[in-house]
Amino acid sequence: MSRALTPKTHIETLRKDAKRWLKALRAGDPDARARLTAAWPKAPAEPALRDVQHALALEYGRDSWIALKAALDDLAIERQTRAQRIEQILRHGWDGDPAIARRILARHPDLARDSLFTAAACGDRETVERHLARDPEAVRRVDPVRGWTALAHVAYGRLDDTHGPEIARLLLEAGADPNFGFTDDWETPFKVLTGPIGLGEGAKPSHPRAEAMVALLVAHGADAYDSQALYNVSIVGHDTHWYDVLWRQAEAAGALDAWRVRGPNRLGYHLGCSTLNYLLGNAVGQNHVDRARWLLERGADANTPHAYEKRPVLAVARLSGFTALAELLEAHGAAPVAFDGAEALQALAARGDASGARALVAARPEVVRSPQPLLSAAMHGNARAVALLLSLGADAMAADHEGITALHRAVQSGSLEAVEHLLAAGADVDVRERRWRGTPLSWAVVLNQRHLAERLAPISRDLRALASQARLERLAQVLDAEPDLIREVMPGDAPTVLFCLPDDEDDAIAVARLLLSRGADRQVRNDEGDTAATAALKRGLDAAAEVLS
What we know:
Elements: H1 11-26, H2 30-39, H3 49-59, H4 65-79, H5 82-91, H6 98-107, H7 116-122, H8 125-134, H9 150-156, H10 164-173, E1 181-183, E2 189-191, H11 194-197, H12 210-219, H13 227-234, H14 241-252, H15 257-260, H16 275-285, H17 289-297, H18 313-320, H19 323-331, H20 341-350, H21 354-363, H22 372-379, H23 383-391, H24 406-413, H25 416-424, H26 440-446, H27 450-456, H28 463-468, H29 472-481, H30 505-517, H31 532-538, H32 542-548
Antiparallel strand pairs: 1-2
Helix pairs in contact: 1-3, 7-8, 7-9, 8-10, 9-10, 10-12, 13-16, 16-17, 16-18, 17-19, 18-19, 20-21, 20-22, 22-23, 22-24, 23-25, 24-25, 24-26, 26-27, 30-32, 31-32
């Protein structure tokens, strides 16, 4: 049966259609089976939901469910008004979706010609020229959606890989402000120069012609020192490319003092340090040796306090076990740092000084009772330090003030070797920290440490994490041994394990049936007043919600 998408077709409608079809197949409906055979002759004898979705996509003339959803995205665009499409184009460079904006532009290329702002965002040079010729003052105005100038749309736009510098030049020569800026929700200042570089906490990609755009902006009067751009660069990647580019621009503009001297509106000012020293702290904290060397060679102080840790950067490096970085700092004049007590043990273990650590513990046995050395070693994935500390008597269940244990931190680091050392020493795989109520297994799931989830699941009793991963065999084993666990209730949006179903519909159904057969209470409500069935419906797990109802 061939079917056609219409502007009224929605993804939720198709999902429900697939689920009804699957339900009919499982009930033995001959018409449902004939339909499946007609759509997909090679369909499995016992199809899962994903198979039925594939067959449904074939009925609509698409080769996959993903292709069908993409076609629906195009239809969703068609349901939008012209104003809504323009808004998505103008927002794509900040809080919008570049992929959707590209789809809109591909289907409606005329939108690039709507205004100077859309032309700038889309990379339409000819339209920019026409608008400037007709209304030269437009270059100084801001759009009604983002409140940006056309030049800002060029700088932050990612719909055009080629014409950014040319359009920026046209706008600048027409009088655009190269230092136009705006603030985010935290009142952080962003400038035009920040845009082409991107990066930062959202890890946004740089513009393909970012270097040329930066050079052009500075040549036309943009401040060569951009604190937000430097911050964005310092937390993404580990190379020195953008440091080189921005330093050269500042040097050519005679603005290097902005890097070297602490001052208002400069990176690090409110934290008590110059930009160079702030960046050095970031490099040390992330073990970026090349960046640290680059900064030191340009005047960063090897004795500067870390902006956040408020202690010498050498101390941070030593306590973290970043030996090469510590040696680099010392080579550039960092004064020796002395540690006492548990910190001394942490530093010794971090650098692998087993004899020094043993001597310290022999002289001061109390230092090994502090949780900090083991927590730090685990957090950095330093398996050698973890093993040493455990051999010296460190408690495998060491935890911080929030109940986060060394095993949690080892999972966070991704180090299987550190995890193995802790498990062998008796670390509890099911301990819950107090902040998020998570076990080491749930941390592995949330942090996408799949290899560690595979290691911990067979020995964990965390029903919620096991259910979310559809580990049916282990769930059954745990409930056979401890049937009362099914009645565990916790505060929050997932009070019982029934609220922790996996995303896959078939898996969710299987997990729900298992849990209900073991006595799970389907009447418990979460903090929002939802039952497990209602919560499943909100996630689009209609068939599972039916089971729960």
